[in-house]
Amino acid sequence: MGNKPEEEEEFLLNHSQNSTKGGVKTIPFIIVNESCERVASFGLQPNMILYITKFYNMDAARASVLLNLWSALSNGLAIFGAFISDSYIGRFRAIAIGTISSLIGMILLWLTTIFPQLRPLPCGQYQLDCNAATSTQLAVILCSFGLIAIGAGFVRPCSVAFGADQLENKRNPDNERVMDTYFNWFYASVGISITVAITVIVYIQVQFGWQVGFGVPALLMVLSVSVYLIGSPLYIKPKPEGSLFTGLFQVAVAAFRKRHINVQLNYNDDSYYKAPESKLLEPSTDFRCLNRACIIEDPHVELKPDGKASDPWSLCFVEQVEIMKCFLRVLPMWSTCIMLLVSFGQPLSIYQLLTVDRHITPQFEIPAGSFGMITVFSLTIWMAFYDRAVVPLLSRYTGLSTGISPFSRMGIGLFLGIVGTTLSAITETIRRNKAINAGFEDDPNTVLNMSSMWFVPQLALYGVAEALNVVGQIEFIYSLFPKTMSSFAAALYTFGLALAGLINSLLVSVVDSTTSAGGNTSWLATNINRGHLDYYCWLMTFLCVINFLYFLAVCRFTDQHHHDGRSSLFPDAEEEHSENRRFHGA
């Protein structure tokens, strides 16, 4: 942290020595690797609950719990993957390990469609009860899910940074423009990949069956591994320099080790361990217990002759302490977005869509698993419209460069989430009543005389709500942290997705076990005409309302000097992030 001139000199030296490595020629290899991984993994998700319930004889609620845990694991491992790559193995190896792991996992999953021995016997007319999967059969499919989750956790957080490593050249006067172009192309490829996954891969599964539908993602991963490794001789492979998360752990450990220090005493500036070029001379007064981590008790013991800390787990920079405090300040506001993410993952939604008319023309029917594209399209269109049309208009009246404050964006997003879950409850009530009135209470596979367009408004609202709330969250976090931690916003969002998956699993499990007690039909029964998915949607609406009230309380008690989205600790943060935050927002 205190050797920037030396680091820059080493960086320039590496670039001069590796003039034949890196550059634009490496970007296609990296983007193809990332795109194939996303198409393959995202293409598996929409219809997976149908495969689990049909071929593993699970009820829909249990299958939903399993898939939510899989989602939580994939997102949680992204934090772990970023930490391991930054601290120990480097981004090149992390991506290689992740890509190969995904390949093995998808081959295992594909094999379950080939060999009947890897699945339980199907429920037949002569069987009173369906056979449950054996421990070996469950182990195979769970192993495939785990390997795919490890792959996603190692590839996704590292790919964008690894591509930036190939292009960043501080001697190039056009470096910033080159990086901006790269980020644009990278995130465009992410959007295209998700679109292809939810449309093409899902369509293949519906039209050609599970063997082909799971075989194509496995082939894509073969391509991903091959292309990435072919480009290996061309890559610049920076050595791991340590993770930003390590600094947070160091502050907590150092403060605990020095818990005997009385922080109420007045210490002069020389008593604090500061980075040579840091503008922070002393820690702030809030969260004083953490200030112990940067107090120098004995310079002869705690400092080396060159002024560096002898043990970074006992003595930390003032800046590290303040970043830890920023993290603690962010947590309450960040936690308000988790319930919104939970509401997006409502179980059994694909079963609703299977019972309505999805025809666009008499010959073409939209696959039920592809309706998630409505949310993706509404999110993308709204972000472009908001950035180009709404922000300039609102800026004239509010004087804010972002149109409205991050708090307002988050609040509007949460409110639209409530409207979306309300619409989902109303729509399911209408659908269920139609099914019962038509005499299909015991036949959940019959298509009703009801258009799938009933589901479009709620799915579109989810996209707009996510665009407003998540980008507002990222702007708020960016305004508090220095540029060196610009990736922290994306990391927190990813961790929020992991928590949302865990909460969804818990909610589904509790609701299913509670409502099915005493022999009653579960709200989340596989036969959704007998269940009460509408009640579950109303429960989600109620929880979203409670979360909105919690958000208002957090806004009320958030420190006033953060109310305009700026931080007194890092006053240049907003200026530094004004250009690049939109990329992370995408």
UniProtKB/TrEMBL annotation:
Keyword Transmembrane helix in annotation: yes
UniProt protein name: Protein NRT1/ PTR FAMILY 1.2-like
Gene for this chain: LOC107018446
Tree of life domain: Eukaryota
Localization per Swiss-Prot or TrEMBL: Membrane
Protein's membrane topology: Multi-pass membrane protein
Chain segments annotated as transmembrane: 65-84, 96-118, 138-164, 185-204, 210-230, 333-354, 366-386, 407-426, 459-481, 488-511, 533-553
Family per similarity comment: Belongs to the major facilitator superfamily. Proton-dependent oligopeptide transporter (POT/PTR) (TC 2.A.17) family.
Lineage of producing organism: Eukaryota, Viridiplantae, Streptophyta, Embryophyta, Tracheophyta
Keyword vocabulary terms for this entry: Membrane, Transmembrane, Transmembrane helix
Sections of the chain in a coiled coil: none
CDD domains: MFS_NPF1_2
A Pfam family that the UniProt record links to this protein: PTR2
